[in-house]
Amino acid sequence: MKNSTSIAIGGFDGMHIGHQKLFNALDKNSAIVVIETGYANLTPKREREHFSHYPILYLELDSIRHLSGQEFIAFLKEKFPKLQKIVVGYDFHFGKDRKYSFNDLRTLFDGEVRVIDEVTLHGDSVHSHKIRAKLQIGDIKGANAFLGHNYTIKGKVVSGQGIGKKELVATINIEAGSFLMPKEGVYATLTRIDDEEHFHPSVSFVGHRVTTDGNFALESHILDGEVFCNERASISFVSFIRENQKFDSIVELKKAIQKDIAIASKELKFLQI
C-alpha cells in the first residue's frame, strides 16, 4: 500500500454499484480506505475484499474521528507517501465532528480530489441503508440490483433441530451473526459448500421455526442432490418465495416445503451456476 498513488475513502458496506463508481476512478497503483463505523453488516469485517482487487486499509472511526482536517490529511500522507489522488463520494465528510466536506479536502490536499456524483438506479439513489431496508422487507431483487451482486451470507455450519432429514428435507444450518438477516421467510438461493468453487441451487429458510421448536434458523436445502458440508457455507439470495408461517402439522409443513422447492427450481433453472 505504501506505493499507492490514489485512494478511495468511505464506509463501503455492501461494496454496491455506487461504491464501484469510486473504485473505477482509481489508478493502477491504488488502495481502498475503509472507515469502520460499526454499522457494516452487508459486508462485515473483511468480506469487502471479495468485491475489489485493490488492497484495503481498515480504519476504526474512533481512532481518527478526533483529527482536524489538516491532521487527517497528514495521517493519510503518512500511510500513503506517494499519494496523488483521493476519490470520495459527494456526501463524504471527515475530521472532528464531520465538519469537513470534499470542498475542504480540495483545499487541504495538494493533489487531485475526485468527487463522484450520486449514483442512481431507476431514479432512486443507491445507498447502503436503502439496501438494508430492502432486505428487511424481503425485496431481494431490489437489494441485489443496488448491490450489483447477490446478497450473500456466510457462516459456520451448526447442528439443526434433527428432524429435517428424517421428517422433512435435509438442510445445511449455518450461524452468521455478523450479517444482516433478510426478512423472515423462504427464498430461492444459491449455496456454496466449504471450499467448493461452484454454487448449488437451493431453497433457504430464514427465521424462527414457528411450526416446530420456535428457534431462529438460517438453513438451506440443496436441490441438486444431498451434499455433505463440513465447516462452512455461504447462501446467496436470489428471490423471495413466501413469508414465514406456522403450519398445523409437520405434514402441512412438508407440503409447503415441496411447493417451495418447485418454485425455487423454476426460478433458478436458467441461472448460470
Shape: elongated
Please state how the strands of the largest beta sheet are arranged side by side: 10-11-14-13-12-15
Mean pLDDT: 93
Which CATH top level class of the largest domain fits?
Alpha Beta
Distance between the termini: 35 Å
- Total domain modules: 2
How many strand units? 15
CATH fold-level topology of the largest domain: Rossmann fold
CATH superfamily of the largest domain: HUPs
**Gross CATH architecture of the largest domain:** 3-Layer(aba) Sandwich
Provide the low-confidence segments as ranges: none
Determine the fraction of residues in helical runs and give it as a percent range.
Answer: 25-40%
- What's the tally of helices? 8
Let me know the largest β-sheet.
Answer: 6 strands, antiparallel, barrel
Strand content: 25-35%
Quick rundown:
This protein has 273 residues and is α/β, with parallel strands linked by helices. 26% of the residues lie in helices and 30% in strands.
